[in-house]
Amino acid sequence: MVSNATRSARAGEAPLRVNARRVRHEPTDAERKFWSRVRGRALGGYKFKRQYPIGRFIVDFVCLEHRLIVEFDGGQHAQREGYDRERTEFLRAEGFRVMRFWNDEFLKYPDEMMEGVLLALETGTNPSDR
């Protein structure tokens, strides 16, 4: 049985969850390629979730066990630096490490980017953010 407090909390999250579900069905090429390489624990046995709500934000990919978030940015992010900075600060304050890649960078160098993600997972390092 679900308590009234839980029911109320879930109701507040409903719009975010609906948006996360919608975005999962509209991935960028980079997100699609990354997901194909990590789904089903394909990357070193680590489990990733995609378009996952954390606080008031939806992150592109997260390995909850190792508190690592992988974000993909397109050209629109060049105009949203303040928003992205606030978002990253919030996620770090929640104990997550954040890796950000430009979509085109990942599409050109997927193997190198995946090596960086795997290294961050295996070593627990805090990857630098651009």
Describe the structure.
It contains 5 helices and 4 strands, in the order ααβββαβαα. With 130 residues, the chain is of the alpha+beta class. The longest helix has 21 residues, at 4-24. The radius of gyration is 15 Å and the shape is globular. It starts with a helix and ends in a 7-residue tail after the last helix.
Helical content band: 40-55%
The main β sheet shows up as: 4 strands, mixed
Give helix and strand order, one letter per element, not per position. HHEEEHEHH
User: Shape from CA axes?
Assistant: globular
**Beta-sheet strand percentage?**
15-25%
Note the topology.
Elements: H1 4-24, H2 29-38, E1 49-54, E2 57-63, E3 68-73, H3 81-93, E4 97-102, H4 103-108, H5 110-123
Parallel strand pairs: 3-4
Antiparallel strand pairs: 1-2, 2-3
